[in-house]
Write a structure and sequence with these properties.
The chain is of the alpha/beta class. It contains ten helices and 13 strands. The chain is globular.
Length: 275
């Protein structure tokens, strides 16, 4: 892709969606009528990620994570220099709105609230709230009602904790980090953990814990990157790169590394795909 492609995607704020096949995208974005831009660094892709959001983006010596690897692949496809900035979500929002970032490159759900603030890039991952149990546990926990009288682990200061405590009361145990909850479950100190499927599968894959994903507690949702509201050219440019990444097999390799399976397909885990 030419440097003008990124410049055009940043500079335009059109409400119309450009219907351009990926194979024609580079040529389309260099039309004379679209090639004018006063933006600096037209060949640079500027992405924001959360500072500590394991396994998607986190710093342990170096910035790394699933979404960081995806960002590097997207930049390669676009032949753009990649600049990644890590920070809080509020800081990333401000920089995106002010033009300092091209996209927030983390797992944002297309909720009504988020749709009001952002336009979205083609999603590349499915995620959902699931129940996690010890691998030897054959009990069926299909709802919060099934967990009455049981010890349930959740991440502290989250909506999941609020809902669980409202239904189960003091039987809910909050953990400051979810890996501590999974460790307690592996040691059979609690009966179950409620967490996002991607996060659960990451720790199962990485730490080889004797735990398993069992029942879904919510429908699968797609998640992906967000651009400034109204910047549809940038959303389409990045969506084309995502489509190329999914088609050429490079995304599957990234996904296998972090989760042990292809997360572009919905499943409650890599052991039990949804039908």
């Amino acid at each position: 892709m030419t440097e003008g492609g990124l410049a055009v995607a940043r500079g335009l704020r059109r409400r119309q969606i450009l219907s351009v096949p990926w194979g024609l995208l580079g040529a389309a974005l260099t039309w004379p009528s679209l090639a004018q831009s006063t933006r600096a660094q037209p060949g640079t892709l500027r992405l924001g990620v959360l500072q500590q959001y394991k396994p998607f983006s986190f710093t342990e010596g170096l910035l790394q994570g699933f979404d960081v690897d995806v960002a590097r692949r997207i930049a390669m496809i676009l032949r753009a220099e990649l600049v990644i900035e890590a920070g809080s979500f509020s800081d990333l929002q401000k920089k995106l709105a002010g033009g300092g970032l091209d996209a927030i490159a983390n797992q944002l759900i297309k909720s009504p609230e988020n749709r009001g603030q952002f336009d979205f890039v083609r999603a590349y991952a499915f995620n959902q709230l699931v129940c996690v149990q010890h691998e030897s546990d054959e009990r069926d926990f299909l709802s919060l009602d099934d967990l009455l009288g049981k010890k349930l682990g959740v991440l502290s200061n989250t909506g999941v904790e609020v809902q669980a405590r409202g239904a189960l009361g003091p039987a809910v145990r909050g953990f400051k980090s979810i890996d501590l909850a999974f460790l307690a479950l592996a040691q059979q100190k609690i009966d179950a953990v409620l967490e996002e499927s991607l996060i659960a599968d990451f720790y199962i894959q990485r730490d080889q814990l004797p735990i398993k994903v069992t029942a879904p507690f919510a429908a699968p949702l797609t998640a992906g990157w967000a651009v400034h509201k109204g910047n549809l050219p940038m959303a389409q440019l990045l969506s084309g790169a995502v489509q190329s990444m999914l088609a050429d097999g490079s995304f599957k390799a990234i996904s296998q590394r972090w989760f042990g399976y292809d997360v572009s397909k919905p499943s409650v885990s890599h052991r039990a795909p949804l039908r």
